[in-house]
Hints:
The complex is a heterotrimer. Chain A is of the alpha+beta class. Helices cover 20% and strands 31% of the residues of chain A.
Amino acid sequence: MSRIVVDGRTIPYESGDSVAMAVLRAGEHPHHGGALCLAGDCPNCVCEVDGIAYVRTCQTPAKPGLVVRRHPEVGAPEIREPAQPNVARSPAAAHIEVRRIETDVVVIGAGESGRIAEAEAVAAGRAVTVLDSADGNEVVAIYGGPTVIVRRPDAMVHYNANEVVVATGAAEIQPVCPGNTLIGIVTARAADQMHTAGVDLGVAVAVGTPPQTAPCMAVPGSLVRIVEADGKLSAVVVSHDGNETTTPCDTLIVGLGFAPRDVLSRMAAPHLPVRTVGQAAERFALPPCPTAGIVCPCSKIGVDDLDGVWDRGFRELELVKRASLTGTGTCQGSVCVPHLRAFIAERSGAIPEPFTARPATRQITLAEAAADVHTDVFRRSPLHDEHLALGAQLDRFGGWWRPWNYGDHVAEYWAVREAVSLGDVSTLGKLVLSGPDVVELLERLYPTTVADIKPGRSRYVLLLNERGHLIDDGMICRETDSKFVLTFTSGGAANAEMWVRDWIETWGLRVHVLDQTMSLAAINVTGPLAGELLQRVGLADQPSFLHHVHATVAGVACHVMRLSFTGEASFELHHPADRSAELWRALMASGRDLGVKPHGLQALFGLRLEKGHVIVGMDSEMDSTPRRLNMDWAVKMDKPDFLGRSALARTADLPDERRLFGFTVEGAAPTEGSPIFSDGAIVGHVASSFTSPLLGHGIMLGWLKHTPWPEQVQIDGRTATVARPPFYDPEGLRARA
Amino acid sequence: MNEFVETLLDLQWHEPKSTYDVVIIGGGGHGLATAYYLATRHGITNVAVVEANYIGSGNSGRNTTIIRANYGIPESVRFYQHSLDLYSTLEEETGCWIMHATKGLLWLAHTETAMRSERARCLLNTACGAETVMVDPQAAKAICPQLDLSGGGRYPVLGASHHVGAATARHDRVVWAYAQGAMRMGVHVLQNTQVTGLLRDGERVTGVQTANGNISAGVVLSAVGGNVTTIANHAELRLPVRTHPLQAFVTNGYAQSLGPIISDTELFCYVSQTARGQMLIGAEFDPQPSYSTQSSFNFLQSCTSKVTHLLPFLKNLRILRQWTGICDVSADFSPIIGHTGVDGLLITTGWGTWGFKAIPAGGSLMAELIATGKTPPLLEPFGLDRFASDQALADQGSTGTR
Amino acid sequence: MLALETLHGTRIVAAPEALDALDAATWSTSVTVLRFAPDDVFVLGAETISISGEYAIVEAESGFVGCWLTDEQLAHVAEHIDWPLPVERPVLVQGFVAGVPAKIWLTSSATGERSLLLCAAPYACELTERLA
């Protein structure tokens, strides 16, 4: 005979037993008392099963070796650490199977009304799936779609249906009277189930409608109280024609009527094709108003508690619920709602509608909900493995894995300033635009003049929204009269693509767009020896500053853009992603004697800060206008129109205390984000900071947001001086060299 | 007897009158707190709070009950720290048990970018009087032993900011504490009274139209959540506000285990354990604007996946209930409080997902504004006119919202 | 484990009508025309392509990786898709595969053709890992 373990003791069970039935067969109560429905409605058989608490054992088939623990009688169950550890894979909960099934009609409940609904749908030639708890289908919830979420012992199943029929029948009303939490009380249907299973009910007394098959003595009258002896019931007191009679018994069977099992119907959004049929749709009479006893077995709430909150002025169903906690437990009101409504109906004179139903009717664990959920994808540059081989510490930035440093960001800094260095800028946004209206588009999109950019030339541009606030920046490179290449920041690329396409459509312009962000890799070759390195690998005719050419470099076709973010001469080599590792290695090999090193973001952030170049989203804020960033030079207000122009024109004369400044400080740079003080008051904060190896002191970009702007401020307890960036090579001679 | 059943309060309901000095639309935390402070601090008791449903039926009864002040701009840190301070003495002041518990909050960072933000947060908070300190992974683990520092092998914890003063309180009880306090002083709270329009005398707002009749008022304050644009429309007022659904869920009750509040800068989810032992779990608001309060399985999936990466002990806990509120989110993710430009109409809105923590400060400062006619310094930055003058208070990163 | 390899082809962005013609043309069996969008096509296996329209963008494309699938492999991939696959063949479908943005060129195995799973190269490692 098979056995399960209950609170450390093994008990046998018979084929077909639920866990609850096995426990009852052993002469015990699966919980600590309370009327059992054995139909999944009440919380009175809830246990911890195999480490999962709050499992309805009447719905759980007994299996060999199942470990059952009763919840503590007082207080909440302990948390069991899951057996399955977190592993670095996606989905994280892959051990739980998820099935997704497309079907036409889902019928929930295989009772009489469910079978009729099934037959009707079949007759109409429709595909039907019938879900019944007896077949191991616990329906968790109905969501939009409609999507029916089902928990099975072996899997989670998500049904996407055209129609859902709720045929869940009716639940039996639970007794509310003194002693209703004792051991030995069952509903009429539960009694029949136990009898069928061969469980001995002992001396059984039935109150109300008697069970159909279980042998018992029916006692006429209404339930008054249940009498306790030795921790379980010993007798039942019934009132009949004004007389109370006490009947000793081992088991009390209650047949007190029904309430619709309509939680799923009440949960479904009104517009969903969800129908309720049979008893689930029936409006049964409410039970009499309870006068004493526990109303809500989940939270152990008694009638006296309801009286208490009612008398304290909580007079709405929801307020009574929230103040007394009735209906907020595991059974989600299945037991208490009829009694609670009867209580409020008697006190207020009006029958309230049941409260809104929310997922979940049958409970699932967090792991079961998350079972097939994948995490976000982190993108890898084509040079990912090169970086790892060079000892890079990678960080996620703008949705990509990027080198933060290669072990020594200061050495990387010096390679850029004094020799030559490679930076992986494959993550930059890259759009190709072509069409008869392309100039028109770009003139409207950017605050810069575009028409005068000659083919082969490029220009740094700001991207503003309609509010005149900076949303991105980048380069525009003109290829021909009607073709441009645009670049955007790594983090802003995805939005920028949508932004450009959206405006093309809004304005009805004839422009084609190809997003090459992930098709092209890009390597920034930067430093005073960059030109020499590129000479060695075949770039003979090198573009001058803000020019771009198509050329072959180390055998790889490249679009070479001459620009500078680091402050040194820089060549951005845009090239096919699949050739990137080859090009990178050729550059590293050819530059070995020049002292070439790769540089990561940490060095780059410092290098550009010496130049005072702003990083969008790091130095700029959500509402940074060009004026606030001291970048009015990049805005041509004399253009007839561009995105943000009217906002900039409107706000131009408004007082504006917010401005991005440069600062210098003796010694190491203060932490980014440090508040800036003047006369003891916070007047701004440091946006970015860097201890410049070249200058030997701290430099910063930071916001001052209160006028008059001071010349000197306190940062990190030290005096800092407002300075005008760039802090390095103010004439920009090195970038052009 | 369940110790969490309400046994201390006494709500005294009144028959409605046709005129009041102040009519507050919305019987949630902000509306009732404003009424409470008007009555208790300023002696203004001829006040009605008009509620379409029952008190606390909106976002006040649907939020995840977190009280914190670890914002990213000085204006907000000061405001929310004021609120946090008022919360900590609210039980003493009202004699009500709001189940206030100081727990501390760990805001986890997984990237250098996030570390940079958290370091900045700590410095700014400290400068503005909120206690927030940077902790390394081991210190975070000491504060919350259940943390998986590898983030499920996917989101390794590089560090965290520890906001020491963060707390939780039971949302309903906060609403009731303010309601009781206001009602005792004679404030009328009118439930099941839907405002259908505003009474006007020329441009001036002079009261409200309700399904149960007109009520005239010296001043009308809109303190509604989720439908503020509808109220504003009655005054032809256009607000820079969008309404988004915000979902959350709660597990069954378990033995007390999780000490602090856990939050995450990248995954935008947060977890705390209630006094009843339930794990209360939420995430950022849904991206699409909507007035729907229907819950979605997508949310449950994504949120459970995120939190179990950080706190694997949650995996075997069973989900009890899932629900949805709707939030009014302003263009700069900061609240809008004060004058509207329409005479006789004041507003408190834009509370997004962070209205609960603001209830005491929002209510007391709004009451001061109504009573004195002067905008208190803590409220000055939050006026509606900041949008026209391009003086937004952008602090998206602190709101728990992308 | 699926081996995702670089797909070399030609990417063309042009007027939808011009691409309709390209799409409808008879190609040798070694050519695959993947219509990413009405104005965007990725052509595999064609040496030269002529396209009408002076503003068309024609670029060599090597930013995608892919794998031609056996029926068995396709069935395995399908287990990682949480949206219904259409019955129409051949057809290009685009969406999340194991949570990764990907595309599948679904063909009829009755004609002896194989289906092609492809994604942008930066996603290749994660897609491979998740399908393993």
